[in-house]
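INFO  loader      accepted 1 record
INFO  loader      residues=195
INFO  predictor   begin
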Amino acid sequence: MVRREIMRGEPWIAIPQICVHDDGDLLVTYTPGGARFGYPESGTFPVGEHPWKLAGSTYWWGHGRLELHWAGVEHSLFLFWEGAEREFQGWYFNLEDAPRRTPIGFDTLDHELDVWWAADAETYEFKDVEDFETTGPARYPGRMEQIRAEGARIAALLDARDHWWDKAWADWTPDASWTAPDLPANWATVPFEAR
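INFO  predictor   done
INFO  writer      dumping tokens
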């Protein structure tokens, strides 16, 4: 399946993923190492091209990224692993649009503001706060307060030790036979719903 980010009414990036679980409420996807990103060939890009494109990033590397998405929820949960022993690194609460299903996968938009809880840490920390405050008004016009409120909601749940996800996902391993999927040729032209 394809994770697309739609920025200000235009496809901004596409990431080919593997569907791990989908029960209509919880969608779990995996981006394996080597998965090649797709960037649109043209567009008006009112906030500029995707930062990964500007940095020259063309594919995902390492042990891959597992993503937990809940229907109607304005964040997802990323899991990462590192090293030869595939050591779990922690929980990354990625503020983003709730997933909108498409014929090829789902659409979303990363909100830049994130909450990171390292596996060996006693508590969490907010990430990219200054970047969010600087670029957010142009990227998410009229939505800054809503995004901040979602960050505060996540923090309050974590402070209350309300863990709404299954921590067993930290022990998940991908099927050894899986390879990085390709993007479909029409990924940029599949209709989308702009927010």
